Predict the 3D structure of the following.
Amino acid sequence: MKKILIFCSISIALVSCTPESQNKNLTYQNIVIISDMSSRLDNKPSKDIDEIHKIIIFFKNECVKPGEKIGDKSSISFSPFSQKTITAIDLEKYKNLAEKQSFINSTGKYKNNGLAKQIEDFESKVKIAYATTRNKGLDLISILIEKIENEAIIKNDTSFVNGIDTTFIKYDNHIYVFTDGYLEYLNKKGNSQFYFSNSEIEKVRQFSKSNNIDISKALEMESSLGLPTEKSNKNKQINLHILETHERDKNNQLQSYKYPKGLRDNEILQAVWKKWTLDSGFKSFEWKKY
């Protein structure tokens, strides 16, 4: 009995001396900006560049935080729908912590080519793209699906073990799409899968009116009025933001609308995009008007 008590005491002492694991949960931002460079840019004075600037400032001041935060792994990229990524800043590529902080704080060998300069170059390339790129008739949703699946713009959560400690890395993927909200492209007769413009909007409006229901209910009742679902495992990792959407049925001079509230173009487009986004399994959806 005495031997058993001694054994138990030793076992308890050994267990109490074993260090506890110190697991960490870290979250970083992956910001992807994709712009529709169609005739919408000529229909209204573009606010895109100002809005993109705000996103860049958020990336710098709230994600990376030069001079305050250590070891950030956030990233930001930009592309028109018609091209692959034309400019990006990805802090994950800096594996050495000292080198990463030197880049972030623009010190040492990165004094003239650190984060501050890279942000300046990023914004310059965005402005050049807006000044020189015009694409008419692009199938935006098909291209968005292609980019998500094949262009490695989405980052996956990961983890690594150091002794008994595990660090879990999570990425919040945000795709910011700058477009007017209308889905118009060439060759509608050959492929109308993701086409949604004036006639499609009117069908939703008339169905809603004739059945005395709101547009969201109309889209639920009659699935053919909306867009076909496109599910993907990657979608559930993505927060989708649709920005700078237009209102063609609004008279800006008189500040009046052609249709009553609840049946306006922008409201119908928002409902159609939202239903497609959530039915396709995206993590979240945001819609902003011009």
Residues 20-179 form one domain.
